[in-house]
Amino acid sequence: MAGMRDSSTSIPIHPDQQIVGACPHDCPDTCSLVTTVRDGVATQVHGNPAHPHTDGALCTKVSRYTERTYHPERILHPLKRTGPKGCGQFERVSWESALSDIAARLSAIASRGPDAAQAIQPYSYAGTMGLVQSESIAARFFHQLGASFLNRTICATAGGEGLAQTLGRKVGMRVEFFAESKLIIIWGSNSIASNLHFWRYAQVAKRNGAKLICIDPRKTETADKCHEHIALRPGTDAALALALMHELIVNDWLDHDYLAQYTLGWEALRAHALEWTPERAAAICGIAAEQIRALARDYGGCLQRGEPAAIRMNYGLQRVRGGGNAVRAIACLPALIGAWRHRAGGVLLSCSGAFPVARAALERPDLLAGRTPRTINMVTIGNDLLRPASPAFGPAIEALVVYNSNPVAVAPDSSKVVQGFAREDLFTVVLEHFQTDTADYADYILPATTQLEHWDVHLSYGHTDALLNRPAIAPVGEAKPNTQIFRELAAHMGRHDPGFLDPCFTESDESLCRAAYGSAVDFELLLRQGFATLPMAEAPFASGGFPTPSGRCEFFSARLHSQGQDGLPTYLANYEAVGSSAEFPLAMISPPARNFLNSSFVNVKSLRDIEGEPIVELHADDAQARAIQSGDVVRVFNQRGEYRCKAKVSPRARPGVVNGLGVWWRKLGLAGTNVNQLTSQNLTDMGAGPTFYDCLVEVALLK
């Protein structure tokens, strides 16, 4: 190609290169990307038309990925703090200077005693979902150091544990077969905004006569396009699921053969569900009992007609006190009507448990050499950064290394998070693309590469294809992949601890990509086309075979029972249930803004222009009672803090519930806060996850 010339000018023609990669963001779609590169510059990112699930289409956010990669505010050199914590004042330094100082500071802490390294805390999550750039060399580094573990719970652990206790692990129906379903219940998901490619399958089903029902407290864009919307109160999903079971039982809309052969604990669940009349659940959910009966008729009718019925859950519904139980209850439903017999029937929350990831090979837990550091839950980082040393807690956190996350913006109860990060005695290192709210509190900011600049390999929690990401361009400025930053930091640590000179700290990214799946996925196929489909049955549980201890769908979990929990799925009221506080009468949920992904993309101007500004949606009745009109600046407040934003009176909000859209960067808010000023550090019933949508507030006009 390099030899081609334009005969009229004799100027060499350099055809555009097309580099196949993968979207790194926390989204079930895990799209295959094609980056167009001209003279070493990425000019466009588009969906890979050769990948069936992506089918050439990307969301608005990722289609503008070059704008993010070449953003004028991107951090391109190591930076050292020069002013007070949080002021955002930094000076450029060399990599050698930064890494030498960081290594010396960490080594000084770790050298004080056998458990002293537990005062060092990694903090990371899903800024990239890649297996290599997330927890490979980074995990090895912290294992060798003996730093505290991080329980990475901030998104999905309650639902994941609920699935594991019922179905065995994070497994479900294959997403492509939703296109053949005759009833699709979209439960707790704004699929148009957060699961675009599933929505395309649902649209095919709709055109072929399927009925679509959306269950969500908010009247989302997805609810607009469904045949029916059930606007229940936040945190009441388990009550609704149990009432559906009640109706299936009393009307005998049951697959008795499937229940007898492939489930465990049916008689106990049957007795429990019969206590949940539609009227009882309706009073809790804030909906009409007839809506519950109609939903049960639709669901049970599929059994009567021999038609496939499918449920697509998403993670919003499990961010409440009883979130794990809610997922358990919903995950039980397909077995009652034998929906699993059809390849287009069953339930899908996550299929990530189907991927044979060789995590030990990537993360090398053997480097711990028998040590068992304490575990800090990332949801409670606000409290834990303020906790003094004690026999129960261990050493106070003295050093924090943040990568792939923006905790000052995304962690709950953020006034405490800010207090913790503002400690002058806390040494903080942040690997980042931009000067986020968290980076403002760093002692060092280290420039990381974007997805267009490094190798990685991906699984998906929304489909069953493994994907490879090739670097499309050279790193911009002095940015380095996360892996390379930790390799070089390990080399500097080796001056103090020879354990860091182990060859595992020099393994290349391509080698790590090959190791991620071992022989379970054909890496040569990944190199050739960028994706490889896992071999899976079309209807994985048509004849049982669940990956549970019993091999059955476990309505009763002996494991939960042994932990002192109810072995059956049950309804647990929110910590902050509607009606429990006269001072804070409104429930608040904080679903993602359509054009952001958590706190990512907030600083991309074209997307922020589309999104507008931070808002809270109120129902007309709630707004009128408070003399609030659209466009007014309001205080949204509770016992934890106050958030100021614009009000929008909207039919998308149900009475008694307000919607604080999007995790905006705090520095872009009207008063330097965001919606997480109001959320709590309470944990879910199982999985120790966050309770972002279990939150009571009041809203008042700013005087």
Mind sketching the topology for me?
Layout: E1 17-22, E2 32-38, E3 41-47, H1 65-69, E4 79-81, E5 90-92, H2 95-110, E6 120-124, H3 137-145, E7 149-151, H4 157-166, E8 183-187, H5 191-194, H6 196-207, E9 211-215, H7 221-225, E10 228-230, H8 237-250, H9 256-262, E11 263-264, H10 266-273, H11 278-285, H12 289-305, E12 309-313, H13 323-337, E13 346-348, H14 359-363, E14 375-377, H15 381-385, E15 399-403, H16 407-410, H17 414-421, E16 427-432, E17 444-447, E18 456-458, E19 465-469, H18 482-493, H19 509-517, H20 523-529, E20 531-533, E21 553-554, H21 558-562, E22 586-589, H22 605-611, E23 615-618, H23 620-625, E24 633-638, E25 641-649, E26 657-660, E27 696-701
Parallel strand pairs: 6-15, 7-14, 8-9, 8-12, 9-10, 11-21, 12-13, 15-16, 16-17, 22-26, 23-25
Antiparallel strand pairs: 1-2, 2-3, 4-5, 4-17, 18-19, 19-20, 22-27, 23-26, 24-25, 24-27
Low-confidence stretches: 1-13
**Radius of gyration, in angstroms, nearest whole number:** 25 Å
Q: Report the average pLDDT across residues.
A: 95
Might you state the CATH topology name of the largest domain? Rossmann fold
Number of helices: 23
How many beta-strand runs?
27
User: What does the main sheet amount to?
Assistant: 6 strands, mixed
Structural class: alpha/beta
Count structural domains. Answer: 4
Our measurement of the CA-to-CA distance between the termini, rounded to an integer number of angstroms, reads 67 Å
- Overall 3D shape: globular
The CATH first-level class of the largest domain comes to: Alpha Beta
Residues in helix, %: 25-40%
Strand content: 15-25%
Strand order of the largest sheet: 5-4-17-16-15-6
Please name the CATH architecture of the largest domain: 3-Layer(aba) Sandwich
